[in-house]
Amino acid sequence: MSPGSISDEMRTKIRAQAGDRCGYCLSLQKYVLGILEIDHIIPSGKGGVDSEENLWLACRLCNSYKGVQTEAVDPLTELTVKLFNPRQQKWSRHFQWSEDGSQILGRTSQGRATVIALQLNNIIAVTVRQQWVMAGWHPPQDR
Fold this sequence. Notes:
Number of strands: 6
Strand order of the largest sheet: 1-2
Shape: globular
Structural class: alpha+beta
Helix content: 25-40%
Radius of gyration: 15 Å
Strand content: 5-15%
Number of helices: 5
Order of helices and strands: HEEHEEHEEHH
Largest sheet: 2 strands, antiparallel
């Protein structure tokens, strides 16, 4: 992403549409260190453009693990599927929280593949979520 290629107005609009949370792990801006980033759903390196339809909000961890990936292998079916699209798809259709609220579980092929590809349950994310659960901040109930 070229920092100057997306207007401040567009960034503000995307942030509002995303509810100030990562489209993949649902981390709220107020709980993460660093500013949530504008993610290209189809990465620029794969021909993605700076249009509103291709932009969403992502935390640094999810965005860095996603990189230029647009698809991944579902570990259950071993089929290659497109990654979850937070702009077009409902999070709760593809994911759910583990019983203790610390891990994201894939409910569909896309969900499972996205969990693996974006390493949504990496040790840092799980450890932080455990603390958020203890503080009563997590998991979010509105997705």
